[in-house]
Amino acid sequence: MPTYAYLCRACGRPFEVQMSIREKEEWKPRCPGCGRRKVEQQLFGFSVGGGGGSEPAPGG
Length: 60
Hints:
By secondary structure, the chain is α+β, with helices and mostly antiparallel strands.
């Protein structure tokens, strides 16, 4: 299930919410700290591991 990162523009509190894509479409974000809806979604880093390259591993 995806994790979405938010920042409250009212109090400055960062928070994360884990929900399905469908839930996110219907969800109205609210800061868990101050309760205001003045939140902004943040970019959340992720990585994808690559498997099998064209070059052999060093020493192999």
